[in-house]
Amino acid sequence: MSTTQEQRPIRCLVAKVGLDGHDRGAHVITRAFRDAGFEVVYSGLHRSPDEIVQATVQEDVDVLGISILSGAHNTLVPKILDGLEEYGAKEDTLVVLGGIVPEKDEEKLETRGVAAIFGPGASMDDAVQFVRENAPGR
User: Fold this and answer.
1) How are beta strands 94-99 and 116-118 bridged, if at all?
2) Quick one: pLDDT at residue 19?
3) What 3-state DSSP class applies to 69?
4) Taken in order 119, 124, 128, 130, is the CA torsion positive or negative?
5) Is the pTM of this model over 0.85?
6) Residues in the chain with pLDDT values less than 50
7) What does 53-65 look like in DSSP terms, one character per residue?
8) Which CATH number fits domain 11-122: 3.30.450.20, 3.90.220.20, 3.40.50.280, 3.90.580.10?
9) What is the pLDDT of residues 2-32, one digit of tens each?
10) Which residue in 81, 68, 75 sits closest to 112, CA to CA?
């Protein structure tokens, strides 16, 4: 890349998966990412794993932020990761998770491909910094 050419902003999809209807945290992180200069697409509520995978691929995002509070993280998140792998997008997409995930489940999700898990009370600055430092191609 030439020094006169600017790098495009980090593109993020913030997604609500499953029947979880609590979207306050998703809106907060969406705003924090936009304020940080990221391009952000918000999926809206009640998206299926396949809808999230399709949106991730179609929007050509660098980062997929999954917000989940329903307790179905061990079922729904692996389906999303499998879908990303099926489309060849897993290596090019930083996947982060926000919401309530018991500590005993964190390692399993990280082993599957979740790069970071931000629980209740997590710092928005920490989340933004993590994305800046770890988004593919940065």
Assistant:
1) parallel
2) 87
3) coil
4) negative
5) yes
6) 1-5
7) HHHHHHHT-SEEE
8) 3.40.50.280
9) 444 468 999 999 999 988 888 999 999 999 9
10) 81
